[in-house]
Amino acid sequence: xxxxxxxxxxxxxxxxxxxxxxxxxxxxxxxxxxxxxxxxxxxxxxxxxxxxxxxxxxxxxxxxxxxxxxxxxxxxxxxxxxxxxxxxxxxxxxxxxxxxxxxxxxxxxxxxxxxxxxxxxxxxxxxxxxxxxxxxxxxxxxxxxxxxxxxxxxxxxxxxxxxxxxxxxxxxxxxxxxxxxxxxxxxxxxxxxxxxxxxxxxxxxxxxxxxxxxxxxxxxxxxxxxxxxxxxxxxxxxxxxxxxxxxxxxxxxxxxxxxxxxxxxxxxxxxxxxxxxxxxxxxxxxxx
Length: 288
Known about the structure:
Elements: H1 4-13, H2 37-44, H3 48-55, H4 64-73, H5 78-91, H6 107-114, E1 121-124, E2 130-133, H7 135-140, H8 151-155, H9 164-178, H10 184-205, E3 216-220, E4 227-235, E5 243-248, H11 254-279
Antiparallel strand pairs: 1-2, 1-5, 3-4, 4-5
Helix pairs in contact: 2-3, 2-4, 4-5
């Protein structure tokens, strides 16, 4: 084992207090910030010696039953437990399914968002890099929706909005959940986040949250160009770790009206392009 599981167990253990897991406090000063190793072992029903070896990266590959017991002991949610299981597979030598090739070179993702002419749509890879965006996303003119941007880094550039931290925390949790913690690009993104986010990034990152993006409100743009939209994330099975992000607006809102106007403009542009191809044979691909 290379220690990914052990590091995660230690970090999560230090976030819990005895009262969080209904453990009795005994007289005397505690010398640890969170739970003791033997307390986690007791809660998980494993020996303290085995738990110590797991944290130190010296134990054999933990079984699914042991990982499940540790997840319950540390009060991990469903996504965090799935993340713990993936760390165990990485420790065992599993190669991430998306390397190589990377999602950035997958043309099918561009084709996927281009057919979605009724809503803004982007695809982010496992490192939260935007690898595809459709025309409606471009019309919103937000840096976070541009191909090549990183959604997590962009989230930390929105401190003028009172709700920025919720979006930043969600982006960080998704980055941790999907990314390969051994990857070069992952390390680059974390370094950039540290530069941009400073102490607040360090505090949020230290929570060790790992979860998928969930549907919810999102604010894009600034000033008169602000868009209050709803995010709907969907997994992209063809590219493990990638997420399709669809943006919509409640009926009757200014944003819904603007999205409808933009969708109509996209359809007119498509019809114009189809008409040009039909009337000008020189525009047709060679061989047709």
